[in-house]
Design a protein that fits this description.
With about 475 residues, the chain is α+β, with helices and mostly antiparallel strands. It folds into three domains: about 280 residues, no CATH class; about 110 residues, no CATH class; about 55 residues, Arc Repressor Mutant, subunit A, CATH 1.10.10.410. The chain is built from 15 helices and 17 strands. Strands 1, 2, 6, 7, 8, 11, 12, 13, 14 and 15 form a ten-stranded mixed sheet that branches. Strand 9 and strand 10 form a beta hairpin. The longest helix is centred in the middle third of the chain and has 20 residues. The relative contact order is 0.10. The model has no long low-confidence stretch (mean pLDDT about 90).
Amino acid sequence: MDFEAVIGLEIHVELNCATKLFCDCPNRPGDEPNSNICPICLWFPGAIPRLSQAAVEKAALLCLGLGAELQPRSAFDQKVYYYPDLPKGYQLSQAHLPLSRGGGIEISDEHGKPKKLRIHHIHMEEDVAKLLHEMEGRQPISLVDFNRAGAPLVEIVTEPDFRTPYEAMEFLKALRTQVRYVGSSECSMENGTMRVDANISIRPCGSHQMNTKVEVKNMNSIRHVGDAIAYEISRQSAAVLAGEAIVLHTRLWDPDKKVTAPMRAKFEGPCVPDPAVPVIELSPDWIEKMRGRLPEMPAARAERFVKQHGLTGDEAVFLSADPEVAGYFEALTGEGVAPRTAMHWLTTQLLPAVKARGQELSRSPVTAARFAGLLNMLARDEINANAAREVLTHLFDSDAAPEAIISAKGFRQVSDQSVLDALINQVLAAQPAAVADLQAGQGKAMGFLIGQVMQASGGKANPKIIRELLAKKI
């Protein structure tokens, strides 16, 4: 019997607000333990929570960026089962009246066909504290850091539209790009600002029934999500074929053993409205104001890059996938760099160099203005491509302008025809076999001779002029 998977995702995204969701404590979970706390986020008796307007705005922008419909009324509820990692013992979330409903992302499936993956709703909630379990001698102890308690989150709950690990991974990549574009979160799974739970069930191919699902929680990389889903599909399929029942429960992914392991029984407790946090009411004017703050989104930006700059679809999609890369590309073209030159040097030279140095493009010393200065000198034939690559390495280590580095290091290109003519004559005299090969129509000989002239010039000769002069001589 063949099975197909039915998969839904729950994605927790930490909003990059300066403060927590219900108080003014800094939203910096990595600070000294228990240094960013107050009576409100510790939920002392009599402390009154104050909902962060910045958190609502960032959450609203995230919803709109994913095509969701903001709800005029949303409200917080208490999850009435026990949370040991929250001081009040329960979590505040939006179970009954979420911030938005609907939305979705279109991806290309394994066969290159478009597929719309729908979002059911997006709601706000608070993060929990960090628990540390240690041994003090032979005595186990548990420590708690409340810095993270009350940090602002949104949870994106999808429809069970996914059928393969590939679709889930592509959805997460696209979602991460969309959220980064609107500026609501860094969506770094490595740093914990995006965490994913997957709900997986299987059914016979061709069936439309919904069977018992298994939840895999807290995966911290897109690859882990794909691997965990693939393993769980295989595990459940084998269990059903062996006559075993699939039981509703929660599992964890072990990336070292590449298996899921049982964690606990799945408990779906009730939620009750919270009386301490007022209902959120969004007016149509406010919603339109938020919609007006949306930037140009990746798909629209890629389409514009194709029309405006003549890039291929794949090139435009690649550049648009990261807002920093797309912005850097536009800054280069704004400085007069030809679009194709900007795309080529950015993707093949600068980005690999930034990555090799463990830097971020936005914080790299190679600003768009400095890089554009270098590329414009290359376009004017003041330097050649080899020299441009050398100068690029110096831009990481010096604040000097490209022109100053080129002058100081002697990288300026030699285009004087009399100088090049003398070098060519030397090479032709020393390489009669290559000359004969070129005269016999062997095209590779031209490249060899150009390389010999470049070597004789110390890499400073203009290869275009060399080629023209060689063609005239032979």
